[in-house]
Amino acid sequence: MALCLTAVCLICSSVLAGVYALTFEPIKAASQKALEQSISAVLPEGLELSSAAVANQGGQTYEYYTASQSGETAAYAVKSTVIGFGGPLTLMVGVLADGSVYNTSVLSHSETPGLGAKCTSDVKFMEQWKGFPANANFAVKKDGGDVDAITASTITSRAYTLAVKNAVDVVKSLSK
């Protein structure tokens, strides 16, 4: 009986290791492609992009990319992760050199389908971030801020807003 159990465990672990080995590179390539698409979605076209760099802000590490034109920094793409209602919410935020938000893109989330997951499909919510000024109040209107929340998804809206604010703060710290 012990031999049979050992054999089953070895076979199962071998199959699992084989599947992992077969899917590792395709998953890595798909993840890289999604990252590149999100960066191009949040930055103006025609800019020269740097390789990834890391910044520390408020005890958290942020990955960012610098976009330049004619040798001058024009914008930044900052990867920002916060905790939403359903778990981690990761955004790519495009911030212009003046600190205003150019655009945002959701890289991953675990929000409730039909509610918080609307952060990827609610056009009104997503469009408000384009050109969002650096001196705006980064809070939902329910909390006295300038951000229109997604209906019935205040926690997700707060998390999204915090992720954008954190990205803008990172750019402000880089500009100093």
Report on this structure:
With 176 residues, the protein is an alpha+beta fold. Helix content is 39%, strand content 26%. It contains three helices and six strands; from the N terminus they run αββββββαα. It has helices at 2-42, 123-127, 154-175, and strands spanning 48-49, 53-57, 60-69, 72-83, 88-96, 101-108. Strands 1, 2, 3, 4, 5 and 6 form a six-stranded antiparallel sheet that branches. The longest helix is centred in the first third of the chain and has 41 residues, at 2-42. The radius of gyration is 20 Å and the shape is globular. The mean pLDDT is 92.
Q: Helical stretch count?
A: 3
Low-confidence stretches: none
Helix content: 25-40%
Specify Rg, calculated over alpha carbons: 20 Å
Strand/helix succession: HEEEEEEHH
Distance between the termini: 68 Å
- Mean pLDDT comes to 92
State the major sheet. 6 strands, antiparallel
Q: What class do helices, strands and sheet pairing give?
A: alpha+beta
Shape: globular
Strand coverage percent? 25-35%
| Extended strand count | 6
Short descriptors:
176 residues, alpha+beta, globular
Condensed summary:
Strands 1, 2, 3, 4, 5 and 6 form a six-stranded antiparallel sheet that branches. This protein has helices at 2-42, 123-127, 154-175; strands at 48-49, 53-57, 60-69, 72-83, 88-96, 101-108.
Task: Give a topology summary.
Elements: H1 2-42, E1 48-49, E2 53-57, E3 60-69, E4 72-83, E5 88-96, E6 101-108, H2 123-127, H3 154-175
